[in-house]
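Quick one, T. Sequence first:
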Amino acid sequence: MSLEKLSSNKHYEGTLAKYKFRSADLGDTYTQFNLFLPANAAQGKVPVLVYLAGLTCTEDNGAQKGGFMRDAAAQGIALLFPDTSPRGAGIDGEDVDWDFGSGAGFYLNATNPKWSKHYNMLSHVTQELPQVLEKAGLPLDFTRQSIFGHSMGGHGALTVYLASLLSGTKQYRSASAFAPICEPSEVPWGTKAFSGYLAGGVAEGKDRYDATAMIGKVKGAVNILVDYGTADNFLYQLHPDKFLEAARVAGHDEVQVRVRKQEGYDHSYYFISTFASDHIHFHANFLKA
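Structure tokens:
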């Protein structure tokens, strides 16, 4: 699992580098990720904020278009950008549809035998990547870690964070999302993914990977920020209102779960980059506490 550095660019006095390694969690395929290290990483370990991208995306979309680095550099926070699925697994059907298979790993661990060797983005993001980066000696403090994402990646960020709270590991200090798929067990993108990747289908997905179902099970405090646009063409796939309702019923107030409706914004990186600074500063409150 040794890292190979593919490129490196100076950025806001820090460094954005692309790496490659052979992933056991992704069926021994090669995977790539981008890592931004702020300048202060030269003096010691820095907190980590993980960004999960959406359907059809790669490790490059957030790094190149998100507009996160200026504020992350100022706050002294590293940014980690994984890919969205395994690549080149050679599974029949993985490249047929844009919303399933390659570029659409949904940040779960597949239990359907057809997909279970390669499609394990949950363990790849939460376990394998931190282990590989720590073994490589990079100056990252994974005891101070938060997570955010967009669309499918917003779903990933919310469910990974909530799962860490429900399991008691509390791996992440906060989560935020841009236009996340909040109730995947009730919308086409999610039911397609759950029916394909999971042996237990949608029922298994709702129990383990549905943020709206999960938020109701969390009894302690949470730190969540969600933004979505009123002009989002995919709003019918997202259900942020259902997530907010479930959070309030569970007793999570405006301080713990904040869902903001942004007038006129769509699903694109123009929307994401507009509110990128808010999200970096939101996480800085917890990563630097």
